[in-house]
Structure formats: C-alpha cells, structure tokens
Amino acid sequence: MTQISVADLCDEHEGVIEVCVTQFRDFGGRTAFAGPIRTVRCHEDNSAVKATLAEPGEGCVLVVDGGGSLHKALVGDNLAADGVKNGWAGIVVNGAVRDAAVLSTLDIGVKALGTNPMRSVKRGEGVVDTPVAFGGLVFLPGDMLYADEDGVAVLAADEG
Prior knowledge:
Elements: H1 6-12, E1 18-20, E2 25-26, E3 33-41, H2 47-53, E4 61-65, E5 73-75, H3 77-85, E6 90-97, H4 100-103, E7 109-115, E8 127-128, E9 132-134, E10 137-139, E11 144-148, E12 151-155
Parallel strand pairs: 3-4, 4-6, 5-6, 6-7
Antiparallel strand pairs: 1-12, 2-7, 3-8, 3-11, 9-10, 11-12
C-alpha cells in the first residue's frame, strides 16, 4: 500500500484538514497508517477498548480518549495483537500503553503519549463511537485519520 505523507496531505487539503497538536510517540510496528475513525472514551478502564479491538476492524483506526492519563495503560501487547488479528490499521491513545518492546514488533500503528507498566482497571466503563476531543480537534467516527512520523491529521468523511 502506497502511503501518502501527512505533510503532503496537509498541503493538498489546506483549509479543510485538521491536525492534532498532541505530540504522540510511535509504539507500533507501523509508523504510518490511515483509516476511518472509530472511538472509545474511557478513563483508566480499557474494557471498551478491549471489546472494540475484538471486533472486525476493517482497516479502521481506533482513537482512544483516555483523558491524557498516564496512570494506567489502556493498550498493551495482547489488545494490539487482537487489533492486528482483526484487521485494525492503527490505534491512537490519548493516554498510556505498555509492553512497548512487543508493540514495536506488531504490524499495526500505535501512537500514545507514553508508557506505564500498570494495567488498567476493569469496571466495564467506556463509551464507544462517540465524538472525542483532544489535541485541538474533535475525532468523529467515520472521518478519515492519517498518521505518520509527522503527526496525526483528520479529514471529514465528506472531504476525503
């Protein structure tokens, strides 16, 4: 698959593309990925993340708004491996991940704020496929997300 650079995409769609200003780190085996957005909003509880990554991804990118918390990891090697197995293109976490060494070997894009070895709590909380906002933009399910080493950009579904 030929991957367009996010910078080139921003030039091509100037005025309509939105860029996330959050400075993510790359953890997955892919540093460039793209796909329609699915979302989860949760706080230190990855139950909804686990359930969503267990579904067919069909090339989508899961955007997880963990409120920027670095106290518990919302994605680790097992959930990312489920994402690979189920056809997800990538995961963007406004929060922490763990198992960074293994994540780097998996064929999936993973961007997050940082790492924490503590697993999340499991209370069955979280909201799926609702608008989430961080980094200066709103991530809407169905819009297109593009990510590479330069950052994360979003085009509305009717612009892509």
